[in-house]
Design brief:
Elements lengths: L6 E4 L20 H10 L14 H31 L10 E4 L5 H7 L5 E6 L14 H21 L4 H6 L7 H12 L2 E11 L5 E3 L2 H7 L23 E7 L4 H4 L1 E7 L11 H8 L4 E5 L12 H10 E6 L6 H4 L4 E7 L10 H11 L19 E7 L15
Parallel strand pairs: 2-8, 3-7, 8-9
Antiparallel strand pairs: 1-2, 1-3, 4-5, 4-6, 6-7, 9-11, 10-11
Helix pairs in contact: 2-4, 3-6
Length: 401
């Protein structure tokens, strides 16, 4: 199960955007740490290792990670990516909203390979990238073992368990950042820069400076839910800005940006966070996705994020944890189902289950898993789009329900 209050948002306007606002000269830069984590944790290249990192430990980790990447590409990316792309209307924004997605940037890049600007919101904080610079052999081996454990669900089963996401909030390697860098490695991207940011009241961003870091260095990041695991690093490392591009690209023209913000997305938290809402409102029209989202978009106390999606999205890909038909009535949307759905995987609103069963009576086959299975272990996927907007081409009629 993915994090209970997590969102990934890939955001853009109709015209191509610059990957990120220019950072001031005093902004702290953690690009060296990002590239080292990309090499050691995500196994994204074969660059030489610093002397303090044990090459045998790293190579054993990377051998297993590369095996998983190959399986993930062969069993999911090669099937899901063309299938989903064929369902999309032409001219969609290159902006996605992915609520409750945990560290699932890898699926965001599969679902929306044209995304230019990615923002994730979740209970998880980005994490302190500096510890990789001083980790010893035992710490490295233990930490890489943990990374393999907490990422296995996403790479093997197409979703991440909440308990694994929580484990990534503590230790020598930053869990969320590791998820994001692994996503880049899977899809052939490389990190260009890493900085940390805060959201101003008007929705604009300000960059972490040395003075900002010094002021909170001894503190720990805020726990966003009482049942969650408290992070063991400074709140300076809550929100990251990761700029990336395809390997061999030109950062001046090929760069894309990913922002991550820890957020509790219920109405008592996100609903009152006017700064974060202002940030999102400035992004214009978006496309959206969600999967394995604990049916939070079905609940009354997640109305703010649900209404934000309905007001701003043009197209959405989800499993049954997406937006129920009740909330889309008279809002100008159509829904098209794939696979088979009988009942929600977790206990959830009976009326929404009934509406979804009716919707899935006309479902087309689905050849891959997208997030949760239903309670009877059926694969299923849902497309929600603005009414009257036809896909650019028909989806492949392959696979089984």
């Amino acid at each position: 199960m993915l994090s209970l209050f997590t969102a990934v948002l890939v955001l853009s306007a109709a015209e191509p955007q610059a990957p990120a606002p220019a950072a001031p000269s005093d902004a702290l830069d953690f690009t060296a740490e990002a590239k080292l984590l990309f090499r050691v944790v995500a196994c994204g290249d074969d660059s030489p290792l610093p002397a303090h990192l044990d090459a045998k430990v790293v190579e054993a980790h990377c051998k297993e990670m590369r095996r998983r990447y190959g399986l993930y590409r062969d069993t999911w990316v090669k099937t899901a990516m063309p299938f989903i792309q064929a369902l999309k209307p032409a001219g969609l924004p290159t902006t996605v909203v992915y609520p409750f997605g945990g560290g699932d940037l890898v699926s965001a890049l599969t679902t929306y390979p044209d995304a230019k600007d990615i923002t994730t919101m979740s209970l998880e904080h980005a994490g302190d990238p500096r510890r990789i610079q001083s980790v010893n052999k035992k710490q490295l081996a233990d930490s890489l073992s943990l990374i393999r454990a907490i990422t296995s669900g996403l790479l093997v089963a197409n979703d991440s368990k909440t308990v694994n996401l929580m484990k990534g909030q503590r230790g020598e390697l930053p869990g969320q950042l590791s998820f994001f860098l692994i996503a880049l490695a899977v899809h052939g991207y490389v990190p260009v820069s890493l900085k940390f940011v805060k959201v101003n009241a008007d929705g604009s961003l300000r960059y972490l400076t040395k003075a900002d870091l010094d002021a909170v260095e001894g503190q720990t990041a805020t726990l966003l839910h009482q049942k969650w695991v408290s992070p063991d690093f400074s709140p300076a490392f809550d929100n990251c800005e990761l700029v990336f591009m395809k390997a061999g690209g030109d950062p001046k023209v090929d760069a894309r940006v990913h922002h991550h913000f820890p957020q509790n997305l219920d109405d008592d938290h996100f609903g009152k966070d006017t700064a974060m809402q202002a940030y999102l409102n400035g992004k214009g029209p978006v496309v959206a996705m969600t999967k394995a989202a604990s049916y939070l978009l079905w609940r009354d106390n997640f109305s703010t994020i649900r209404n934000w999606l309905i007001a701003h999205m043009q197209f959405m890909v989800s499993d049954s944890t997406g937006i129920p038909p009740k909330y889309l009535k008279d809002r100008g949307f159509e829904q098209e189902a794939f696979g088979t759905f009988e009942e929600s995987f977790l206990g959830a609103n009976p009326k929404h289950n009934e509406d979804f069963r009716a919707l899935w009576k006309k479902a087309k086959p689905l050849p891959f898993r997208y997030g949760y299975l239903d309670k009877a272990l059926h694969k299923h996927m849902l497309i929600t789009r603005k009414a009257g907007v036809a896909p650019a081409s028909n989806a492949p009629d392959a696979g089984t329900k």
